């Protein structure tokens, strides 16, 4: 099993844990008896979740508020964790967000914040925490990508590109870690009703209207699939059969046919 057994001095570090997929993955890990350390900017939401998990499952649940766009804040996390007497044997890089719209209307600062969260934080936290896992002889990493990682996405070009990086990076470091006892899983969810699309600037109706209902997967299933994938040491997890088919199609279809279709469907590009 790729997931380590529960231990008083071990934890699962989950970023973007204040809501959505991150919070639900933390719940799923706690259900399995594993302690969790919750990282995000919103401390009240983190503390409420930590209290919930401790009360429901009796696990140790710690809170480390941090802005992951800040490299200094990321660099401080191992020491902050050590001060709690903990080492991370599971790392879930879930924090991320999307901008929307064509590049000619993009906010440069927002685009760079997205890359800092979706790309820089993933690489930085892996390089900070994976060496300790290797030294201890085991561990699991889950990097949250997206079905958008399998093809460019007009209307969310930077987001899809950032998730393509996460998917490629996860494959690469997974191979580097063969024989160390540390596994890497890329989680590639499709649409999930978590408030993510609203934060990106789309209404729920716009998002639902652009994607078939059959593609939407409950957040609880996404989290359960993610943790099952880590436990089995799977390289890629795509929740939902339809999303698995869509990811294959996005990877294999000629770009000259696929991209105009995606652009016509994207609500941020409709005139």
SSE layout and pairing:
Blueprint: E1 10-15, H1 20-31, E2 36-40, H2 43-57, E3 61-65, H3 71-75, H4 77-83, E4 87-93, H5 108-136, E5 139-144, H6 157-176, E6 182-187, H7 196-200, H8 204-210, H9 219-232, E7 236-237, H10 241-252, H11 255-265
Parallel strand pairs: 1-2, 1-4, 2-3, 4-5, 5-6, 6-7
Helix pairs in contact: 1-2, 1-9, 5-6
Characteristic terms for this protein:
alpha/beta, 51% helix, 14% strand, 11 helices, 271 residues
Shape type: globular
Residue stretches low in confidence (pLDDT < 50, at least 5 long) are none
**CA-atom Rg in angstroms:** 18 Å
SSE pattern: EHEHEHHEHEHEHHHEHH
Average pLDDT value?
Answer: 94
Helix content: 40-55%
* Biggest beta sheet summary: 7 strands, parallel
Q: Percent of residues in beta strands?
A: 5-15%
Across the major sheet, the strand order is: 3-2-1-4-5-6-7
The separation of the N and C termini measures: 50 Å
Structural class label? alpha/beta
Continuous helix count? 11
DSSP summary, beta strand count: 7
Describe this entry's structure for a reader.
The chain has 271 residues and is of the alpha/beta class. Helix content is 51%, strand content 14%. It is built from 11 helices and 7 strands. It has helices at 20-31, 43-57, 71-75, 77-83, 108-136, 157-176, 196-200, 204-210, 219-232, 241-252, 255-265, and strands at 10-15, 36-40, 61-65, 87-93, 139-144, 182-187, 236-237. The protein has a 7-stranded parallel beta sheet with strand order 3-2-1-4-5-6-7, with helices on both faces. α1 links the parallel β1 and β2 (36-40). α1 (20-31) runs parallel beside α2 (43-57), α1 crosses α9 (219-232) and α5 (108-136) packs parallel to α6 (157-176). The longest helix is centred in the middle third of the chain and has 29 residues, at 108-136. It starts with 9 loop residues before the first strand and ends in a 6-residue tail after the last helix. The mean pLDDT is 94.
